[in-house]
Amino acid sequence: MTAAAQTTTTTAPYDLGPAVELVSKEEGHRQPLAPEFVSLEDFSPLEVAYDFGKIRREDIEAGPRSIWRYKHLLPVPSNVEQHPNTDPGCTRLVRADNLAKALGVKRIWLKDDTGNPTHSFKDRVVAVALAAAREFGFKVLACPSTGNLANAVAAAAARAGWDSVVLVPSSLERAKVLMSAVYDGSLLAVDGNYDDVNRLATELAGEHEDWAFVNVNVRPYYSEGSKTLAFETAEQLGWRLPEQVVVPIASGSQLTKIDKGFNELTRTGLVEGSPYKIFGAQANGCSPVAEAFKNGRDMIQPVRPDTIARSLAIGAPADGPYVLDTVRRTGGAIEDVTDEEVVDGIRLLARTEGIFAETAGGVTVANAKKLIDTGQLDPDAETVLMITGDGLKTLDAVQDHVGPKATVKPTTDAVSEALGK
Amino acid sequence: MTAAAQTTTTTAPYDLGPAVELVSKEEGHRQPLAPEFVSLEDFSPLEVAYDFGKIRREDIEAGPRSIWRYKHLLPVPSNVEQHPNTDPGCTRLVRADNLAKALGVKRIWLKDDTGNPTHSFKDRVVAVALAAAREFGFKVLACPSTGNLANAVAAAAARAGWDSVVLVPSSLERAKVLMSAVYDGSLLAVDGNYDDVNRLATELAGEHEDWAFVNVNVRPYYSEGSKTLAFETAEQLGWRLPEQVVVPIASGSQLTKIDKGFNELTRTGLVEGSPYKIFGAQANGCSPVAEAFKNGRDMIQPVRPDTIARSLAIGAPADGPYVLDTVRRTGGAIEDVTDEEVVDGIRLLARTEGIFAETAGGVTVANAKKLIDTGQLDPDAETVLMITGDGLKTLDAVQDHVGPKATVKPTTDAVSEALGK
Questions:
Q1: If one looks up domain A92-119+224-397 in CATH, what number appears?
Q2: Quick check: B247 and B279 in contact, CB under 8 A?
Q3: Which terminus of chain B faces fewer neighbouring Cβ atoms within 10 Å, N or C?
């Protein structure tokens, strides 16, 4: 790695910190850093390779209270924190004793990404994509999105003073549409599902070379942002790895990058290596990865999504095969749950820990329950659940299930009667 | 203070950290710490008095990343962080150069409380109220609310494993209703406006001695939580006070407590004292404090609220007279803006800084603009705007103003046509 890295560093015109080149995931072909996402050698996805050098815990701890404290582990310029960005990250890691008790396990931690600037983990990946895109000379930030990404891209572009082009399925939840539109970029509703919108974005990326589609042409950089979930979790646990992690699967990128993050922490000596299992969570209205896992297949059979967990409704998940690799290698599992269980998961989390998650969070909690009930998740091992988005964005999912106990006149008698006390 | 404090400390049965007694705001009558809110001597509100002792910056900086880092300045038990609570605070202080440029001023900072657990500053006051209520032996957390407080109380009670009784006007925004209900406490919709609901809560507090109404019978403790906005702002500025602050006014409590926070930082030597001006912001559909300020009156004339800024729609603001005192003493001013300006404020903030605030945030931004345009706010002095709640909770305010630029077929031609490029 070092020799190749030095060669590349000499010729590369970009400052992307420790990133030295792109490597194809299948056959390991190397190429210089650039806004490209597929290897023309083996047609597999490109991933960022690094020359990390010496990284010390103290330097990270002395850094900003955002993902930029990990800039020496990310493909971003060394002065990244000096440019306007949404500066996400450093969200809470909540010890969830009430939930653990309800599920009959020893210890659960919740990585609560509802506290990010636009209230989902997407702020992490978009912040990294914006930083890399700026270095590459782009001026427009774009994406196809199931909603959370749209919010994050539109907000980050506004803060940076960039134009944005955001494409969403026309059926998207009202909250996500309005929250994407309010930042005043170019929001387009597209007739079709997410896979249609994604295909359109890939075509547009070919036609508009000045548009940085965060999850298309700058995807190798973008996806590295998910590693910060792993970095923060380890640092917040006192610089150690958890034993079990449950991660929702949309494209599958987040799950594989959490694994990559744990590996890099170990490789750089920031944590002592220790075994961990990564579990995947899907809704069974869109569970192509869970299906492949359960049937022992290596290939993903695309599906037409039909679930209330719309932020996970990717029927042809790009990183599905890598998710299968990661989960099998670490000894985890992948499950899926019904929409009813998703709602139960949202309500269980809210009732026990006071955290209101979006449907993706319900998927994670419900799958954790199922994995425990079926003996796939060790109740005596410590488990981290990734709560990646906010309940305010998916109110439709709960509106028929929760509400006021009663509507009363403004008198104490009316209150006593309504509450039976 | 010290002598009285020692006497009180000896006899008081409660551990509320540096808090030693309650003092009436009008005539300074003292009484022991208890869940009481009005002085029976002069019928004025009770406020917490302290014996702070020596507090060092290093101890605060070494504390948790939540309001509990300031526990030695709050009426909470010394082991407060060991009990389940939502642990809010340490939200971002964002340097808003784009907004400053748009408004024609030198430097603006945004205290962005949308990052709190339930996405408003109310998590701060509720966390302190819960901690004090626990020490007093309560087991039920209750409130009347315009919405944000309902969310915060219901979430905090769930996390603590307490029952909650939350009373909201039946006209409340859907998002705030659902977000209050999901935590599975006792949510009641009340036929009436906030002032009716508030009156009902005061009656109920008299009947149910085991209910801690956070903003009624434990209000003296609750309201101290707003000081943490001042503490964090000063610490995030590098342990100094800002020159100008713009604060939205509902009951008026937050504004007066930010002033109290700055005073306490100065008094304890944590910052060097320096002059600052506090400005108040209202919507003109509910502007009784702005009216009194502009007319040079000391008394507040209650109004019947009619504004989209429902979280500020308190027609008879309890702390109104104290707001007038604070603003006049510091050399600030109080303005009010139209509902149209509120929406413009929300959109301006989103477009320039990528932050989506609720109507209260729109009120703050729009008033800042008005205060600048009318020469009341010094464009060369540094200004902090308090962004106290989240746009996802008040979508109705923007829904007729923002949306997709177009709905298109999934083709590149359709996109080009829609965007004109």
A1: 3.40.50.1100
A2: yes
A3: C
Kindly report the nearest CA distance between residue B175 and chain A, in angstroms: 7
Taking the C-alpha atoms of residue A387 and residue B156, their distance in angstroms, rounded to an integer, is 18
What residue type is assigned to position A109 of the chain?
W
Running DSSP on this structure, what letter comes out for residue B308? S
Helix boundaries (H) for B146-222: 148-160, 174-181, 194-207, 219-222
Report pLDDT digits (tens) over A309-365. 999 999 999 999 999 999 999 999 999 999 999 999 999 999 999 999 999 999 999
A150 neighbourhood in chain B, CB within 8 Å: none
- Interface probe for A, chosen from B141, B151, B168, B182 (most Cβ of A below 10 Å), is B182
Q: How far is CA B399 from CA A281, B59, B339, B367, B392, in A?
A: 33, 46, 14, 22, 11
Q: Kindly report the number of other CB atoms within 10 A of residue A41's CB atom.
A: 13
- Of 3.40.190.10, 3.30.460.10, 3.20.20.70, 3.40.50.1100, which CATH number belongs to B122-220? 3.40.50.1100
Joined tokens for residue B319:
């702390």
User: In 3-state terms, what secondary structure has residue B101?
Assistant: helix
Neighbouring-strand partners of residue A357: A390
The residue count of chain B comes to 421
Amino acid at B155: A
Chain B nearest-CA distance from A8, in A, is 36
CA dihedral A317, A320, A323, A329 (to 10 degrees): 180
Q: pLDDT tens digit string along B225-278?
A: 999 999 999 999 999 999 999 999 999 999 999 999 999 999 999 999 999 999
The neighbour count for residue A207, using CB atoms within 10 Å, is 10
Distances in whole angstroms, Cα of residue B309 to Cα of each of A55, B84, B174, B201, B375: 48, 32, 14, 22, 25
Site of tokens 């080149």 = A21
Could you tell me how many helices (H) and strands (E) chain A has, helices first?
A: 15, 14
State the CATH class of domain A122-222.
alpha beta
